[in-house]
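Let us practice reading a record.
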Amino acid sequence: SWADKFVGKEELVYEFNENLSFTNRYNYNYAQVQSKVFSPLAWFGPGKYANTALNADLASPLVEIAPDVFIERGASVNEERAGYTDQTFESYLNYDKSLDTNHRIKGTAGVSVFQRHGEALGGTAFNIPNNSVEYADISANLAAGGCLNNVYSWEFTERLVSAFVRAEYAYQSKYLFSAILRRDGSSKFGPNNRYGFFPTFSSAWLLSDEKFYKVKWLDYWKLRMSYGVSGNDQIPNFSYRALLNGEGVYVFDDVLTQGVAIGRPSNPDLKWETTSQLNIGMDLTFWKKLDLTTNYFIKNTKDLLFQPEVTAILGSYGPGGYPPIINAGDVSNKGVELELGYHTDPKKKLVSDINFNISRILNKVTSVPEGVDYIPGAAFSVGGDVATRFQEGYAIGYFFGYETAGVFQTQEEIDAAGVIQEVAQPGDLIFVDQDGDGKISFSDDSDKTFLGSPIPDFTWGLNLNVKFSGFDFSANIFSAIGNEIIRNYERQQPFANQLGYVIDRWVGPGTSDETPRLTTGETRNNVFSSFYVEDGSFIRLKNVQIGYTLPKKAMKKAKMESVRIYVAANNLITLTRYMGYDPDLGSSNALSAGVDFGMYPQAKSIMGGIQIAF
C-alpha cells in the first residue's frame, strides 16, 4: 500500500490590545491511499491449514459464490482506492488581565468544527494469470464470466461541533480557580441525543506560599481538587441507523445477484457515553530534589458504549446481520495514584532523574440495561462458550466458567467421585459442583463461577535517566500485578500446533494432575474453565537506551553543533509466568480486555544510530 498526503495550516492572531486577542485557525489534511493484496496459490504440504492450492502442482480449488455456482479461485488480488479529508476550524477570543498585584483573570470563548470525509472503491479478482504478482491487477481477472468478487464501495462524513468557555482566576498566585463549560455535538448520534454538555471545575491552594508557612525541608506544597464531565463518541459512523449489508450471492435466470440484508438494527436513542471524575490530591517537593504527587479519584462512567451479543438484548439476528451498538450500563472506578521523583542538579557532572509511579483501581459495574441480568462478552473459541460478562456488582469483563480440581486418574476415581460428570474419562479435567446437586451441568450456568478479572490489582512504572561525562542512559519499566488472562487460542484439532506444556499432559495414571489428555474425540476438557485462566502479572523492560555525545570542542572544529551515537532496545526483557505470547494485551473492547486471541505480540527490537546537529 502507499499514500499521498497533503497537510496545510492557516492561523490568524489579532491583538485588540494587550489583554484581548482573537485567534482563527484552520487545518487541512488530505490522504489518497491505494492498497493491493496479492494471494497466490500456495502448497505447504498435505493437511496444512495455509494451503490455497489443491496439490503440489498448484491446482486451483473451486469457490462456491452462490448455491451450486462455482468458479476457480486461482491466484487472487484485492485492490482498493480510498481518499480521506480532515478539516478543523477553530475560532476563539482570549482575555488575560492582572487587575492589581493580587488578582489575575483569564478567559477563553470560542467554537470549533471538525469534519472528516472518506470514500473508497475496491474489489477482488480471481484467476490471476501465471500465479504471478506481476499480473496482480483486477484488470487481469480471468474468473468465469469475468466475475469480480466482493466489489464494494463506501463513503462517510462525520462532524464534531463544539462551543466552549473557559475562565481562570488567581488570587496572589496561590489561590487558583478555573472552570470550563463546553457543549459538543456529534454526527455519530441521532437527532434525539446528538448534543452533550460537559463542565469541568478545579481549584488549588499553594500552601507553601503562605506567610505562616515555615517548613524548610518541604519546599513546595500544593493542594488541589477537580471535578469534570467528559463525553465519548468513539464509535463507528451512523451507528444509530439501520444499515443494509451485502449478504451472499444468488442466481436468478442464470444471472449472479448480490443479496442484501439488514446488517445492524437501528438505535435512534443512542447517546453520549459520559464520565464524571472527582480528583483530590497534592503535590510536594522535599529538599528541592524529591517530588511526591498523590491523587485519589472517583470515576463514574454512565451509558457505556459497546457492542454486545444481540441475543442478550434483542434476540437473534439473520444472516449478514450483526449486533447494534448500545448504551449498556454504568461503571464505577475508584483508585489511588502515587508518583515519586528524584532529580539532581542539572549543572552537576552526574545528573540523574528517577521517577516511580504506582496506581490501584477498584472497578465495578453498577448497573446493566433493564430486563437483563448480564451482558455476555467475549466468546471462548476453544469450546464455544461465552467467557466474560458485564454484570452488576462485578468488575467489567470478569471471567465466568467452570472451576477445575485436577485430573481424573482412573475410571475407579470417576465412579467414586460422588458427582456425575458426563462423558468423563481418565485424563479428563475434574469440575467442581458449585450448586451441590451431585452433577455437573453443561447446559446452563448453575455450576459456573467467578474465575478472575482482567483488571490488575495495581500497576507500576519506573523511568530512569542518567548523564555523566557525555554518556547518557535511560530505561523505562512497566508492570501489571494481579490480573488474569484467558488462553483463547488453543486448538485440539489435527495439524494444529500446541504449547509446550502439553508435553507433560496426562498419558496414564499418575502422570499429571494438572494437564488433561489430548484428544480430538468427545470431551468436556474444551469448555471454558479455570484450566485456561492464568496469572497475567508481568514486569517488562519497555525501553532502554545508551548514548554518547562527542565533546563540543571537537565538534566546533568539524563545524557541527553536536554528534550523538546511541544504541536502543524495545521490549528487551519480560518477566512473567504467563505461557502465552504476550501478557501485555491490548483490546478496544472492555469485555475482551483479558482475552488472549493469539494476536501478534509486541516485537523486541534493537537499533542504533547517529544524531548530528549543525
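A brief commentary: Residues 329-614 form one domain.
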